[in-house]
Amino acid sequence: MSVREEFDDWATSGRDRGMEERHWQTAKHALARIPVEPGDTVLDLGCGSGYAGRALRDTKGAGRIYGLDGSPEMAHNAASYTDDGQVSYVVGDFGSLPFAADTIDHVWSMEAFYYAADPHETLAEIARVLRPGGTFYCAVNYYEENVHSHQWQEKISIEMTRWDREQYRDAFRAAGLHVAEQDTIPDREITIPAETEFPTENWETREEMVERYREFGTLLTVGVAP
Ligand SMILES: C[S@@+](CC[C@H](N)C(=O)[O-])C[C@H]1O[C@@H](n2cnc3c(N)ncnc32)[C@H](O)[C@@H]1O
């Protein structure tokens, strides 16, 4: 299945909003850290429902938001959630970003980067479109140290890249980005049932669920264009 087929399916069945709800719990903390100045141009890679760009317009006065997604249905849904003329959703692929060099102030991506067919090529593209001093905030829940995410690959036919923290830093640097920060953001909001309710549909033990959300959380790597 292609990115388009897989995620068009998700979008038409309403999973774009479900992802937004789940991802927001850690994404909002990462979004708050992006040094967006009023008027800045922001690109959201793999935007899904497009919530992140809209939040940056509302909270930081970002000037122009582009949400890029490989799924036309995702882009269509995202566009239907706003009538803000400064926010656009485009269909495209991470391997070839439809923007001129040095035109984007900040790139954001939540739970999407690891679907890139060639993540090194995607990083090179991000480095190309960023203005000097621009940032790439890359947030992922699927990464090597998060052992509870490893089985996700079995549930999807698109090949996913599972890097560890160091591999993210090395790849950013190889693409010419400085690594300004790397951190994990715990999800403190998800409800973790009482011990007596385990096993649940998704979790064998309470300890595993606590580890996944409260300890591992979302891996955030921040790159800065020289
Ligand atoms: C798991 S969803 C995350 C969506 C959103 N960022 C969020 O936090 O809810 C991943 C998104 O990335 C998009 N995507 C995956 N691979 C892509 C690629 N190579 N090029 C463009 N978009 C891609 C998918 O279509 C999907 O909408």
TrEMBL record:
Gene Ontology molecular-function annotations: S-adenosylmethionine-dependent methyltransferase activity
Keywords: Methyltransferase, Transferase
InterPro entries: Methyltransf_11, SAM-dependent_MTases_sf
Entry's Gene Ontology BP terms: methylation
Segments forming domain Methyltransferase type: 43-138
Superkingdom as given in the UniProt entry: Archaea
Identification of the protein by name: Type 11 methyltransferase
The organism of origin for this protein: Natrialba asiatica (strain ATCC 700177 / DSM 12278 / JCM 9576 / FERM P-10747 / NBRC 102637 / 172P1)
